[in-house]
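Bit of a strange request maybe. I'm writing a small parser for structure token strings and I need a real example to test against, not something I typed by hand. Could someone generate the tokens for this chain?
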Amino acid sequence: MTLDALTERAERAESELFHRLISTAPDAVRSRLGIATARFSGRVVTSVRDDATNYWSNALGFGLDEPVTAALVEPSPTSSSQKRTLGPLIQIAPALLPADWAEICDRHALRSGGARYQHICSGDDFRQTASTDLHVGRATNAVEWTRFTMRGFGMPEEDSSDMLGPGCDSDEVQLFAAWDGDYMVAAASSFVWQDVTVLNSGVTLPSHRNRGAQSALIASRAAAAADAGCRWLVTQTAKPDPGTQNPSTTTDRAGLAPLYDRPVWKWNNPK
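Reply from user aminoacidic:
Good idea to test on real output. This should exercise your parser:
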């Protein structure tokens, strides 16, 4: 199966983002939350045993360096914490799913858990659409930014910030925010990997939505990506359920068109 170059760049960059955020957690936090990370032939597995949101345990990058098989989906034999969790969310680009994927799902009790759009555009195709009365710029306090963002997403503030803080404070991660006066009201970040920038973690307080904060944050991150020499911008948004809308999917107005929608598979480890 031929792997589309854009699919490969988008999938690898996202995998590296998750690995950076989870693998840099301090040893004491790793022990407290039951964190384990691993790499296998292009795949990245992150496991957080005590994650109340069941969001940070992910298996990404499948099919990039070798075909997806039933054996490839087996849990890591070196990750004891992964075996104790409900299992990672497995996300595989549709073009990389094998013909016997249905049988693999049956074998591992994999069930569909919605889908996420993978968006991408070249830096040359990005369109500036930002207009806001808020002040938008780089955030310099990683702890403040992380706590605000986790709170905005409804995630446990202390545990999440303890786990993600070091990764958010790394050279590859760029933090941005919007302020109403001195009050942070929106946040977003970008992750630079080779010639790709992953736009992620966009959140706005309900009181300040529809004021252009996220469009401005996308524009600021796109400018920073260009300064870093990146050729591609990618981002992921949740595919809305039928009859509903996700405002985040309107990133195509800036040129970030959906490349494909990628199912999320929930895996219950066998006892």
